[in-house]
TrEMBL record:
Alphabetized InterPro entries for the sequence: Thioredoxin-like_sf
Protein's organism: Paenibacillus terrae (strain HPL-003)
Pfam families: 2Fe-2S_thioredx (PF01257)
CDD domains: TRX_Fd_family
Name of the protein in question: Ferredoxin, 2Fe-2S
SUPFAM superfamilies for this protein: Thioredoxin-like (SSF52833)
């Protein structure tokens, strides 16, 4: 899934596809998130990237959303769908949120 226009992008969703996350439905979470992004017609402003291990195996499956640096754990395909719906609505998926970095984007 290539992204050509960065200007409209609001969220970058990093989906752990490391070994432990893959044993905890990581592939299914990845596909559910990507399918829901298409369903919501949100491809222009929500981009996904598969990652390797993010180092939080006890929270598998892990999804990280930037620019806010929100870390979500124990994700399931159903939670992935809810996450995309919350992102579209400008909200957070609080039951699965275990850390936020509150990253502030500075314009350069």
């Amino acid at each position: 899934m290539a992204i050509f226009e960065l200007e409209p992008m609001k969220h970058h969703v990093l989906i752990c596809n490391g070994g432990t996350c893959m044993r905890h439905e990581g592939e299914e979470v990845t596909q559910a998130i990507r399918d829901e992004i298409r369903e919501q017609n949100a491809e222009a402003y929500i981009h996904t990237t598969r990652t390797r291990c993010n180092g939080r195996c006890h929270d598998a499956a892990v999804v990280i959303v930037y620019p806010h640096g929100d870390w979500y754990g124990q994700m399931t395909p159903a939670a992935g769908i809810q996450l995309v719906q919350k992102l579209v609505a400008g909200e957070k998926l609080k039951p699965h949120l275990f850390h936020t970095t509150n990253y502030k984007q500075e314009h350069v």
